[in-house]
UniProtKB/TrEMBL annotation, chains A, B:
InterPro entries: RNaseH-like_sf (IPR012337), RNaseH_sf (IPR036397), X-over_junc_endoDNase_Mg_BS (IPR020563), X-over_junc_endoDNase_RuvC (IPR002176). Its EC number is 3.1.21.10. It holds the Pfam family RuvC. Homodimer which binds Holliday junction (HJ) DNA. The HJ becomes 2-fold symmetrical on binding to RuvC with unstacked arms; it has a different conformation from HJ DNA in complex with RuvA. In the full resolvosome a probable DNA-RuvA(4)-RuvB(12)-RuvC(2) complex forms which resolves the HJ. Keywords: Cytoplasm, DNA damage, DNA recombination, DNA repair, DNA-binding, Endonuclease, Hydrolase, Magnesium, Metal-binding, Nuclease. This is Crossover junction endodeoxyribonuclease RuvC. Mg(2+) 1 binds at D7, D141. Mg(2+) 2 binds at E68. Its cofactor is Mg(2+).
Length: 184, 184
């Protein structure tokens, strides 16, 4: 299975592609960080992100796209840019008929480091180790995009097992709100 | 000049097209509200919005696109959907080389009613009057999209005059922060 992870942003948007199967070593396919100048208008910046995403999708033809789920608690400007770049990634994947999943930063950190509160550096160290790289991917957006892809590979496998198990249980027996919630 | 206004949203996304020149009556070209089911995943919903936007852009070939500027003070879920649908509109316009402008809800209300605190109904009444329509465009998203287009027609003319005047003043004489800020 091949997953393309996106750490969305306007100033820097990380795109990382990883191959893997549950229970087997994972490997790096490609990683790229799109940068768009803050002096450009928002249309030109989003278009810059879209073009590189399209190029990576066409080159690597992933089976799934994983995008960071954005919350609006943080800095307004940053959150808006992140939400906008994320939307460009989501709609690009949908246009190609590729399933899209959203993972929170703490889900990603927990997946690769074992702790949802890990710092950037710890995520970078684990991404380097898990993908058996010679050096840590830089900038942090590159490592974060790869971490998203790894998180999706692993959670995808776990969710598939959970769904298979849940399919055997009548819906009325499931705890309230146990259905996976999308980012709507 | 032809302006396509977008009141972004996932559940309902208003798209309104208006023709006009400063100092002359304005006229309705087309108005449409895209609806996407909350049960669909985010990728399918954004794709639904993108398709209708592309159709309207191809049909009406506007000179400019005006999108509502989103703030993240409000409900998190709603704001995210609005930011995502807005990003899809901005990048679609940029792809076609059409200039994009963002206007705040209070700028739009002030443009069509004279008050930045006008309610939805007042905006609807004025849109109906200004475009000489027989009935108020429904739902409110349709009227809001048309109000955005009207706001842009009028503010565009005013901004062009201001820019022309400012071009004659050395930049150092302009008050700090007087340059128009984009939504980055």
């Amino acid at each position: 299975m091949r997953v393309l992870g996106v750490d969305p942003g306007l100033t820097r948007c990380g795109i990382g592609v990883v191959d893997g199967q549950p229970g087997r070593p994972i490997s790096l396919v490609d990683v790229f960080v799109v940068r768009t100048p803050p002096t450009d208008d928002i249309g030109a910046r989003l278009l810059g992100v879209e073009r590189e995403l399209e190029r990576m999708l066409a080159t690597h033809r992933p089976d799934a796209v994983a995008v960071e789920r954005v919350f609006s608690q943080h800095n307004v400007r940053t959150v808006m840019g992140t939400a906008q770049a994320g939307a460009v990634a989501i709609v690009a994947a949908a246009r190609h008929g590729i399933p899209v999943a959203l993972h929170t930063p703490s889900e990603v950190k927990a997946a690769v480091t074992g702790s949802g509160r890990a710092d950037k550096d710890q995520v970078g160290v684990m991404v380097t180790r898990l993908l058996r790289l010679d050096a840590m991917p830089k900038p942090a957006d590159a490592a974060d995009a790869l971490a998203l892809a790894i998180c999706h590979l692993w959670r995808g496998a776990a969710n598939a097992r959970l769904s298979a198990a849940a399919a055997k249980v009548p819906v009325s027996r499931l705890p309230k709100g146990s259905a996976q919630k999308g980012w709507r």
